[in-house]
Amino acid sequence: MSISMKHVHSLDILKSTVIRTGLNELDSTYVNWVSVIETPVEAFVRKNELVLTSGVGCAENEQEFYKFVKEIIQSGASGLAIALGPFIKFIPPSIIELASNHQFILIELDWSIRFSDILEQVLGEIHEQKHQHLKRIEQIRKSLLDFILSGLSLNIVADHVSKSIECPVLIADKRGVIRGKSNAFPDPLLDKWAQFLHKQLEEDGIYHSLDQTFDWVEYQGEYALQLTIHSTGNIQGYIVVGGFGPEPFSEEEHDEWVMLLEHVTTAVAIHFLHEQAAKEAEWRLRDDFVWELSRDAIPSNDLMRSRAKSLNYQINLPYICIVAKPEQLNESFQSMTHLSITFDHWLHEWIRHMEEEAESIAKSMALKSMVTYQNEELIIFLEVSHQKVIEQVKTYIGKLQTRFQFLHPSLSVTWGIAKQYGYSCFAGSYQEAKKALDIGRKRNGKNTISVYADTKVDRVMESLEKNSDLQEIAINTLDSLLRYAEERQIDLLHTFTTYHHNHGNVSQTARELNLHRQSLLYRLRKIESLTNCSLDNPDDLFILDLSIRLWLNGLDIKRTEFR
Q1: Which one of 19, 296, 351, 382 has the fewest beta carbons within 10 angstroms of its own beta carbon?
Q2: Average pLDDT over residues 46-62
Q3: Average pLDDT rounded to a whole number, residues 350-363
Q4: Architecture of domain 467-560
Q5: Is 39 helix (H, G, I), strand (E, B) or coil?
Q6: 151-273 CATH fold
Q7: For domain 3-125, which architecture applies?
Q8: Please, are residues 329 and 411 in contact by the beta-carbon 8 Å criterion?
Q9: What homologous superfamily does CATH list for 314-452?
Q10: Residue 204: pLDDT above 80?
Q11: What residue segments make up the domains of the chain, in order of their start?
């Protein structure tokens, strides 16, 4: 705990002393201890220590006295008080110049003032300041707990803390959503902090390491402190405290602020945990309801409307279904080696984050939504408000995808969008979105967006796959090509599909495959000989194309063995 040199000089015992240098530094220089030192200085003086001396070791030796004062200055002492008397009769000009050049506080003491009296008064003031600080901390702790247990908003909590510590205060959750803010919180700091957190989440995601719980944010020539709120090794949110002046606080001030702010973070963490517990019960009810809507498992419309009303859902609006599948969840979790929570705990939290973001983005677009997570997939019923439905849905997905990447950069998501939308078509729309997702993952891979309306050919292929005659034709047609690909490592199926896509244009196909024209012609003749099909015969082309489509659609895993 520290007091300013101005405070020290105002004490009764030091009022009559003379400040020879550093008068302008009294306000900004702090003292956390007082000591009596004579030569040699060595390592006996600490930073922010007021030093008292009689100069007994430097009597009548200006050079030794100069060296002594220089070492005191270099030690980081707050000031030096010299008792003028039998050893030091006056302070030489060379020493005054030295202290002045370093903006160091040099004080002349009357010999009659006892050092013990100075020590008693200064240390007494420091201890009183510490007592008042601890008292204030205890008052803040009690009042915060009362606020939290009474269910008051975090705006009230932030404003109370702000008035108690005389600094602007902001409280945000782990996603960066502002949950509480003091009335006097400056807009420039709000903008700078938003940029700072965005960069932090962009680089490390929502589950960054807790090795560093303090971060400084610079704004308009001042500093603000971002403090991470956490419990049981898990980040809950952030507190931002502004108004620390042109420099971050010193090591001495650090302990004081840590002690104070730890009580604030503990109280806010309790608020978040209470809120989370209340939300969990509501989420479970909502999850069950939306999942039953998806499966058309609610017995009557009256019961559906009643349950929707109790959950504050509006089901009398036009909705379309979106299904999202997070990819490689286990790998993403394992990549975050600093986490101290289990995979199940992490996954549960991430599911809730996805649901919250899905609802938040819909709200930002002035749309209603209903969300649940089932069978490793996020199911979203999104209100549609104009005729360009798919365009609107893709805009929504784009914003949601940005937030997912922002909170968890290593995670990818695959999407499926229904064709059917409107009133009371929840189950049908879900089945379409689910089908679009499955087909899209098979055809286009992960981290893609697929629309049910664009999967006509794939759905036809799935139906044809079940026909035993077609299966036999496809196997007989492609067997030799696949064997050849396995033995020679030349994918003739890909050669044919590229040739067919280019409508038989040999030059264009050779360019796409990066082949010499003669090499391509050789491959095309080999396809004809292996399949007994002529590439000039439309019927043979149809059989080849259909067989390859069936093969790729139904046995796409095996296909990779021949690529």
Answers
A1: 296
A2: 86
A3: 91
A4: Orthogonal Bundle (1.10)
A5: coil
A6: Beta-Lactamase (3.30.450)
A7: 3-Layer(aba) Sandwich (3.40)
A8: yes
A9: Reverse transcriptase/Diguanylate cyclase domain (3.30.70.270)
A10: no
A11: 3-125, 151-273, 314-452, 467-560
Longest CA span, the chain: 122
Under 8 Å between Cβ of 380 and 351: no
Query: Between 1 and 2, whose confidence is greater?
Result: 2
What percent of the chain shows pLDDT beyond 90? 25
Could you tell me the two tokens for 230? 């956490």
- In whole angstroms, what is the distance from residue 164 CA to residue 498 CA? 73
Is the Cα dihedral 492, 493, 496, 498 positive or negative? negative
Distance CA 46, CA 53 (A): 15
Q: Residue 50 is encoded by which pair of tokens? A: 């007021």
The whole-number pLDDT of residue 399 equals 93
- pLDDT tens, 218-228? 888 888 888 88
* Phi, psi (deg, nearest 5) at residue 208: -70, 165
Strands of 428-499 (E only): list them. Answer: 449-451
Q: Would you give the end-to-end CA distance of the chain in angstroms?
A: 71
Element (H, E) at 431: helix 426-444
Task: Look up residue 503 and give its two tokens.
Answer: 């409508």
How far apart, in whole angstroms, are the C-alpha atoms of residue 317 and residue 311? 15
pLDDT at 229 over 70: yes
| CA-to-CA separations, 330 to 327, 373, 377, 391, 433, in angstroms, rounded | 9, 17, 15, 32, 24
**β-bridge mates for residue 461, sequence order:** none
pLDDT digits (tens, 9 = 90+) for 531-552: 888 888 888 888 888 887 777 6
Per-residue pLDDT band for 398 (boundaries 50, 70, 90) equals very high
Length of the chain: 563
User: Which residue, among 117, 103, 122, 118, has the nearest Cα to 20 in the 3D structure?
Assistant: 103
Alpha helices in 205-250 (DSSP H): none
The three-state DSSP-derived secondary structure of 521-563 is: HHHHHHHHHHHCCCCCCHHHHHHHHHHHHHHHHHCHHHHHHHC
**Cα distance between residue 392 and residue 199, in whole Å:** 28
CA distance 120 to 488: 94
Average pLDDT over every residue of 480-500 = 83
Q: Which of 213-217, 259-263, 477-481 has the lowest average pLDDT?
A: 259-263
Name beta bridge partners: 324: 378, 415
pLDDT for 561: 41
Q: How buried is 110 (Cβ within 10 angstroms: 0-12 exposed, 13-18 middle, 19+ buried)? A: exposed
Per the structure block, which two tokens stand in for 245?
A: 């002046």
